[in-house]
Description:
Blueprint (H helix, E strand, L loop, with lengths): L21 H4 L8 H19 L15 H8 L3 H13 L3 E4 L8 E4 L8 H4 L10 H4 L34 H12 L2 H7 L4 H16 L4 E4 L2 E4 H8 L4 H13 L7 H31 L1
Helix pairs in contact: 2-4, 3-4, 7-9, 11-12
Organism: Faecalibacterium faecis
InterPro entries: DUF6017 (IPR046059), RepA_N (IPR010724)
Protein name: DUF6017 domain-containing protein
Amino acid sequence: MTLDYFYGQAGELFSFFRIPKALSQEQRFQNLSTDAKILYGILLDRMSLSAKNGWRDEQGRVYIIYTVQEVQKSLCCAEHKAVKLLRELEDIDLVERKRRGLGRPSLVYVKDFSSGLPKAQVQNCQNSNSGAAEIAILEQPKPQANKTNKNNTEMSETNPFYSEEAEGMGKREQLKEYFSQSLEVELLLRLCPDDEDTIYQIVDLLVDTCATNRKLLRIAGDDKPAEVVRSRFMKLNADHIRFVLKCLAENSSPIRNMKQYLLASLYNAPTTMQLSYQNQTNHDLAKSR
């Protein structure tokens, strides 16, 4: 396959990850690996989405949710390297992770690389050598609320449905809002556009299941306490949903009861996903020896 040439300004039509020049030019970043610099650029890109969705903590600081598994997929690397790259960024104070426990993904604060540097060294200008300088000037994303006008998306409790913030909302609406944010539905729709119907079906299924007043729920042929199922579902994140979608796409057997299939897959996703990634990592390590 022979690739075509770029003509005129055609090269400016595509989206790119932006890696600040300062990471290559400044003395304090000289020991940062190339992969870590690329990862920082990817995390910066995600920051704009979080800012638009109003993902801010109580102090107004924007955060993202970007798991080790997402780093693996973005950089096509094994788990141990993904962890190493995140730690590399943490050690130089470009990233700070706030661990929340209970199986929930950490909040990632991408810190300002330009702190302490002269503005002339980090800002774009009209005299830049880059041909795309005029369109490359960084614009601060305008804070805007998400569809429900909630600006603080951090859920500090396992069951957030009775907070003052949610007062006046129905239980189903609160659940739908919770899962829309904890599962990063907007991001999932961007990453998996062909699975839009299934993603919405999963959200509706999670809402229905967690909103039920039944004491027992049937999962994979077993009756389990509804509170246990609810607690497990509320710890799911976008990675778990992508894993379920992947398993669904790879399944070659006919599915007689899609609802029960999805319930079982979602319930078991945290365990099966971890085992799957560990098996893949071991396989990659064995091949590299």
